[in-house]
Amino acid sequence: MKIFAKEKKLQYEFEIDSVINKVNYKSNKIYTIAIYVNAKWGMKKYSSGQNIVAISNDCGKNWKFFAIDDRETALGILKMKFPQNIIDKVLARM
Prior knowledge:
Elements: H1 2-8, E1 10-25, E2 28-41, E3 44-56, E4 64-67, H2 71-79, H3 84-90
Antiparallel strand pairs: 1-2, 2-3, 3-4
């Protein structure tokens, strides 16, 4: 996205709308977050929102993110590492 933005003179920023869920499990922090990408290209402005999951395996020092395109995909990804009761807390209110 950075290369495209530079080539096309697109300005963008990420905005955190809200933290929906916060779950701590052992040394893991797992957050469900609503974000927006706000972009300006010439005189036009665009905004798009999405829910993401943020996971830190080292108490918040480093983070990995993935979009929640649908609940089933998120379940499949989270099941690789976390028990069902933790997944239920992460995806509550989704």
